[in-house]
Amino acid sequence: MGKRKIKTERRPEILDAALAIAAERGLDAVSMRTVAERVGVTPMALYGYFEGKDALLDALVGLLLSDLPAPDPSAPWEERLELIANGARDTARRHPAVFPLLFSRPSVTPAAVLVVDLLYQALLDAGVPEAHVPRVERLVSTFVLGFAVSEAGGRFSAGSADARSRRGGPEPGHLPAHHRLAAHLDAAVDWDAEFRADLEDLMWTIKAAAARGTG
């Protein structure tokens, strides 16, 4: 028996509906039933476009990643990585409810595989030994996605940066490192500047990985 043919003509509309439901009610509210209701079809009709919820979620991951800017392959590898990283951060800001899927879904869609390939190529061009490229790519992706998810989800909000409330007790012996760093912890944070600085540190890490391979 041949594999069932998946329809495509209404897939963009269906994915937009899933994004809207996630934005309004959270990712847990996205189901075949709720999406079918949003686009005005029966749940069974939706299975003509997606084999199930997992396929729908994978398609959402692909949609998010297809939104990332495509770097010029002739540009320096640092510029290519920076463009992808900033693009991921922008996408997380636009779709904070759905972006965490990138942590939980495998990179199986064409768009996802393409992004990983672009990262692989940038790391190869940086001189990272082939055997270490997959590991370093995971390092890069985990940092970029983690920062983007944390920022979009509110972990980096002004409230969470209130180090005074975290220090708790007034005694210097209580959380001594917090007391020592008080002036720095209580300072306002420019998240754009911090992301740029973190990317610079990440570039140094990549260069170190490349240097170890040539030593």
What does this structure look like?
There is one protein chain. This protein is mainly α and 215 residues long. It folds into 2 domains: 1-51, Arc Repressor Mutant, subunit A (Orthogonal Bundle), CATH 1.10.10.60; 70-215, Tetracycline Repressor, domain 2 (Orthogonal Bundle), CATH 1.10.357.10. The protein contains 12 helices and no strands. Helix 5 (77-94) packs antiparallel against helix 7 (110-125) and helix 7 (110-125) crosses helix 8. The radius of gyration is 21 Å and the shape is globular. The model has no long low-confidence stretch (mean pLDDT 86). This is TetR/AcrR family transcriptional regulator.
Q: H/E order of the elements? A: HHHHHHHHHHHH
Low-confidence stretches: none
Secondary structure class reads mainly alpha
- The coarse silhouette is globular
CATH superfamily of the largest domain: Tetracycline Repressor, domain 2
The name CATH uses for the topology of the largest domain is Tetracycline Repressor, domain 2
Helix content: 55-70%
How does the major sheet shape up? none
Number of domains: 2
Radius of gyration based on Cα positions:
21 Å
